[in-house]
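Hi support team,

I'm opening this ticket because the web form for multi-chain structure prediction keeps timing out on my end. I have pasted the exact lines I submitted so you can reproduce it. The total is 834 residues across two entries, so I didn't expect it to be a heavy job. Is there a limit I'm missing, or should I split the entries? Thanks in advance, R.K.
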Amino acid sequence: MKYTEMNREQLIAEKAELDKRFNDYKAMGLNLDMSRGKPSKEQLDLSMDMLNDTDYTESGIDLRNYGIIDGIPSCKKLFADLLGVEPKNILLGPNASLSLMFDYIAQAYSHGVMGSTPWSKLPEVKFLCPVPGYDRHFTILEYFGIKMINVDMTPDGPDMDAVEALVKDESVKGMFCVPKYSNPQGITYTDEVVRRIAALKPAAEDFRIIWDNAYIIHEIYDEGDDLLNIFDVLPEYNNDDMVIEVCSTSKMTFPGAGISALAASDGNIADILKRLNCQTISYDKMNQHRHVKFFGDVDGIKAHMKKHAAIMKPKFEMVLRHLENELGGKGIATWIEPRGGYFISLDVMEGCAKRVGELCKEAGVVLTNVGATYPYGNDPKNSNIRIAPSLPPVDELDLAAQILCVSVRLACVEALL
Amino acid sequence: MKYTEMNREQLIAEKAELDKRFNDYKAMGLNLDMSRGKPSKEQLDLSMDMLNDTDYTESGIDLRNYGIIDGIPSCKKLFADLLGVEPKNILLGPNASLSLMFDYIAQAYSHGVMGSTPWSKLPEVKFLCPVPGYDRHFTILEYFGIKMINVDMTPDGPDMDAVEALVKDESVKGMFCVPKYSNPQGITYTDEVVRRIAALKPAAEDFRIIWDNAYIIHEIYDEGDDLLNIFDVLPEYNNDDMVIEVCSTSKMTFPGAGISALAASDGNIADILKRLNCQTISYDKMNQHRHVKFFGDVDGIKAHMKKHAAIMKPKFEMVLRHLENELGGKGIATWIEPRGGYFISLDVMEGCAKRVGELCKEAGVVLTNVGATYPYGNDPKNSNIRIAPSLPPVDELDLAAQILCVSVRLACVEALL
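Hello R.K., no limit was hit. The queue was backed up. Here is the completed structure from your submission:
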C-alpha cells in the first residue's frame, strides 16, 4: 500500500513496526560504509600480477628515466584504441583523471582556452552541471569560483532543451558530463543526446565539455550499454575542439596507483602540452608500461573487467532486490537499475533525504553526504541519495541495504505524520 | 700561456692546431649527450629491488585503494626525518617535485597565499632568481607571467645584499633557491646565507621562497656539504611561513617514477591541502610504500646514495681533469668543483658561450641550451655553460669533455682574432 494513501492510524502502526526494526539494527552497533565508489579488496587482488613487470624498456628507450611527456607509445595506443581516437590525440596523465580535469580548468582559468581570454579575467564564468552528478566535479568548479547551473538529468542524459538554451549565454563556458553509467544514476547518454551535445552552438568560443568517461568499460552485465563515440560525431558539426575526454584505470587496476588518459583534438592537445611542459617532465612511465604488459590490448581490458563485473553484479543485485522488496509500490522512492558503473541513485520523497542520512548514521551506516550529488551540496528537493555498493563484503552490504530501506521508510512516515 | 696575452700570430697558430683536433673529432660522427641531469642506466639499476614489494598494507589499511591525501604515515616519517621537520609538516606529492612547485605557484596565482590577494589580480608580480639557475624554475615563472629578476650567485649562495634590497619592493613575491649543490654551480649555501634568508623582512606578506632541495643527499664524495636546516632558523625571525621546501626521489630511485615531498609550516600545509582536496584523491601510495620498504630509514637512503656517488664520482673527476688540463691557466674559463649534485658550471670568456654550443653541436655533442641557466634564456654575458656528466658512459664522457674543451678554446681564439 502506498504511504501517501495511508491514514494517520495506519501510518502510526507502520512507524511502530519500523521503529522496532530500526532499533534492532541500531542495537547491533554496526559500522558499515556505502559512501564512496571504492573497489573491494577482491577487486584490487585481480591486478596484482601487474606488479611482476621487470623489463622497463620500449623500443630501446629506458622508461625508468626522465622524458616522454605525453606517455609511452604502446600505452597511448592502448588508450587510443579504448577511446576510439588516434594516438596523437591522447595524453597519458597522472594517477587520477581528477587531476587531469582540475589542471585543465586551472589552465583555462589562468591562460584561457586555445588563445581565449583567461577565465580569471572575466567578470563571470558559468558551467552547466547535469544533476544529480559527481561531487568532485562540483568541487573543482567551486574552487575556481565558477558558477554552477543545474541541468536535470533525464533517462536519456541531460535535458538537452535546457542545455541548448543555456549555451546561448556567452558566460557559460562549459559542462561536466559522465556520459556512460553516469555518477550517480548509471544513465548512459543515448545516441541522440550525444549528437545534440556534439551539435551544440555555444555563444562562447572557449566552451569546453569535460567528458568524464570514468566508467567507459565498467559493465555489470554481459550486455553493457553502448555509448556513441562523441569524437566520431564532432567533426560533422565543426566542433572538433569542444570536448576534452578523460578516463583512468583507477577502477580497473588500482585506485590511486593507476594511470589516467586524456583525449582531445590536435589544437587542445597542443594547448595542454604548453602547460604540461612547464608542470612536469613526464608522468610515471613505469606504471604505463606495467599496464600495457598486463592488459595487452582492449580485449585484455574487457576480459579483466568481466572479472570485476562478476564481483560487482551480486552486490548491485542485492541492493536492488532490497529496494524492490522494501520500497516498491509504496510511492515514496524511485531508482534506476544501472547496467554498469559504481552507483545506484535513489530518489526518496521530497524533503526526506537528509533525514534518511541521519537515520542511517544513527544505525551505523555511512552514506555519501546527502546533497553531495548537487552543486554547492544543495539538493533543492532534498531527495537524492547515492548508494555505493562496491566496497562492503556481501554480508555487510546485505545489512546496510536493509538499514537504508528501513531508514527511508521511517523518514517518509515521519514526514507524512 | 694565457690566450689574452697571445699576439695575433700565436693565436693563428693555436687556432690551426685546434681546428685540426676539432675536425678529427667531427670526422668521428659522434652523438654524445651532456644536456640534462639524467641518471645513467647503472644508477637506475640500483633501485630495481624496490619493485619486489608485494604487501601493500599499512596499519591494516589497504594502500591500493583510494584515500590518504597527504601520504602514508611511514613515508611521511621518512621524509620528515630526511628534511628535519615534523611529519605533520610533510605532504607527499606526485612523481615529480616540479609539479609540486608548478602547482604551488598556480595556487598562489589563482587563490593567493594563505588568504592574500591572488597574484593574478595584481598589476605585477616579481620573483628573484639566483643566476645561473635551473631552467625549469624559470619556465614556471614565465608561464605565469611573473617577472624574473636576476640575483648573482656568489661562492656562498645568492648575493644577499641584493636580495635584502630587492625584497623591499612589495611586488617581489618570492624567490627560487636550490640551496644545496645548486643547479648548475654545485654551490651549497653557507650557514650565514641561510640565516640571512631566514631573517628576510620582505615588504610582501605573501612572499614565499621555494626551497628546491633537489640534491639534499646527493653527495659525490664521502664528505658532503652541510646545509643548515632553514626550518630550524625561521622561527627565530618569526618567518615560519616563508619557506616551501620540496625534494624528490627522482635521482635516488627512478626519475619519473619516484615520489616527491613538500615541507612547510602548518599554515602553508593547510593552505595547500585546500587545493589538493579538489585536485586529487591521493597520490600513488603503492609507490610510497615501495620506497619505505626499500630505504627503511634515512640511513638506508644514505647507504643507497653512496652507491650513486661511486658511479658519479669518476665522471665528475674526468670532466674536471679535462677542464684543468685543457683550459687551466689560459684565462678563458672558470669553473667550480662541486662536491655533489648533478652539474658542473663552466663560465667561458664573455660573449663566447653560444659559439661553444654551436661548435659542440657541430662535433656531435649536445649541451644544455646555452642561455638556459638564465631567466628568459638570456645570459647577459653569454658566458655560462652547464655540463651534465651523469648520463653518458665513461668512455663517451671522456670524448665529450675533450670536444667541449677544444670547442671552448676554439671559440675564444675566434673571438680574440
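A quick check on our side: The CA atoms of residues 85 and 231 of chain A lie 7 Å apart. Let us know if the file doesn't open in your viewer.
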